[in-house]
Structures are given as structure tokens and as C-alpha cells.
């Protein structure tokens, strides 16, 4: 069983998947920073200074108010954090768009490589004298 596990881990697909997960985690951190540090301020500017990450509604009728979403969560209040959801949707859309662009570029590169291979395969080898032509030439040279 240990040998089978080693064989499974040593396969290229498992290693490729592990690398993909690591790159994905790093990419997620970059996208989160881009959304929080670049896109949110721009959206907030157009929305009159609104910060979506801190938008929430307290569920329940106790009348408590909190300065921030974090404070409400720390107090144990039931919150409807619609701002966090909006930011998650924006994150998803950005990630999906970037992944779409990457896949599009990879597919374009693959198509270009496939066309080059087809073009190289279709080019006939330069026609030279056949074996019979060479033998005939040698025979004629020996007759002289």
C-alpha cells in the first residue's frame, strides 16, 4: 500500500495539481489586495465614499448599533453582511476574468504551435535524385 501511495504521489498530475493550488493561493492574495486596495476606493469614490466591506444590517430587534461589522460580530450579534458578499462577488468576477484571459492566451499559443507543426508536416522534403537516378548516373559514368 505504501508503494502504491508513493506511485500516486510521484505521478505528474498530482504534482501539477499541488503547484496549481499553491499558485492559486498566491493569486488569491494578489486579487484580494487588488480589490481591497485599488478597486474598493474607486468604487467608493463613484458611490460617494461608500465602503462596501463595512455594510451590514443587524438582524433581530434589540436596537443595538455597532460602529463596524467586526464590532458587531465580536459582540455576537446576528448580522446580514451584504457588503462582504458584494466584495466576494467582485473578487469572483475579477478572478474569473483573469483566468479567462489566461486560458485564452494559452489556447491561442497552443493553436499557433499546432498550426506551425501542421505547416512543417505539410512541407514536402526537397526532391532529390532517386536511387534509380543515382544508379543510372553511376552506370553511365562507368561506361565512359
- What structural class results from the helix and strand content? mainly alpha
Ends: how far apart? 78 Å
Strand order of the largest sheet: 1-2
Order of helices and strands: HHEHEHH
Mean pLDDT: 82
CATH superfamily: Large-conductance mechanosensitive channel, MscL, domain 1
Description:
The mean pLDDT is 82. The protein has helices at residues 2-10, 12-46, 69-74, 82-122, 131-143; strands at residues 57-58, 79-80. The chain contains five helices and two strands; from the N terminus they run H-H-E-H-E-H-H. It has one domain: Large-conductance mechanosensitive channel, MscL, domain 1 (Non-ribosomal Peptide Synthetase Peptidyl Carrier Protein, Chain A), CATH 1.10.1200.120. Helix 2 crosses helix 4 (82-122). The protein has 144 residues and is mostly helical. The longest helix is centred in the last third of the chain and has 41 residues, at 82-122.
Summarize it.
This protein has 5 helices and 2 strands; from the N terminus they run H-H-E-H-E-H-H. The chain has 144 residues and is mainly alpha-helical.
Keywords:
5 helices; 144 residues; mainly alpha; Non-ribosomal Peptide Synthetase Peptidyl Carrier Protein, Chain A
SSE map:
Blueprint: H1 2-10, H2 12-46, E1 57-58, H3 69-74, E2 79-80, H4 82-122, H5 131-143
Antiparallel strand pairs: 1-2
Helix pairs in contact: 2-4
